[in-house]
Amino acid sequence: MSITIQDVEHVARLARLELTDGEKSQFTEQLNAILKYAEKLNSLDTDNVEPTSHVLPITNVMRDDVERQSLPIEKVLLNAPDEEDGQIKVPAVLE
């Protein structure tokens, strides 16, 4: 598979980009070089390679959920830009 100048023009039109003739040629060459490099992967023997979702063995490092005392409301409201009736008051988003 190779990329043509028409392919580059089509993608540029979809992205609403105006490209010069030089840029079209440059991008066509670069994209074809990328595809040629990616084709090297087809020559690799991957029959005995186990599929993975990540290259490193990753485990979840979340801590256990521990119940603890909340901050007093007076202390929380000290950080609020505005408060009303013991609640944080924010500007209305909907009319």
Summarize the structure.
Heterotrimer of A, B and C subunits. With about 100 residues, the protein is mainly alpha-helical. The chain contains 3 helices and 2 strands.
Describe this structure in words.
The protein has helices at residues 5-14, 21-39, 73-77; strands at 83-84, 87-88. It is mainly α and 95 residues long. It has a domain at 5-43: Histone, subunit A. A two-stranded antiparallel sheet has the order 1-2.
Summary keywords:
95 residues; mainly alpha; Histone, subunit A; two-stranded antiparallel ribbon; 3 helices; 36% helix
Strand order, biggest sheet? 1-2
SSE sequence, one letter per element = HHHEE
Q: Class of the domain at 5-43 in CATH?
A: Mainly Alpha
Q: Report the end-to-end length measured between terminal Cα atoms.
A: 54 Å
In which range does the helix fraction lie?
Answer: 25-40%
Assign the structural class, choosing from mainly alpha, mainly beta, alpha/beta, alpha+beta, or little secondary structure: mainly alpha
**Rg calc:** 28 Å
Question: What would CATH call the homologous superfamily of the domain at 5-43?
Answer: Glu-tRNAGln amidotransferase C subunit, N-terminal domain
Poorly predicted regions = none
Annotation, overall tally of beta strands? 2
How would the global form be characterised?
Answer: flat
User: Could you tell me the strand content as a percent range?
Assistant: under 5%
CATH topology of the domain at 5-43: Histone, subunit A
Question: Architecture of the domain at 5-43, according to CATH?
Answer: Orthogonal Bundle
User: What number is the mean pLDDT?
Assistant: 91
Sheet with most strands:
2 strands, antiparallel
- Tell me the number of helical segments per DSSP (H or I, 4 or more residues long): 3
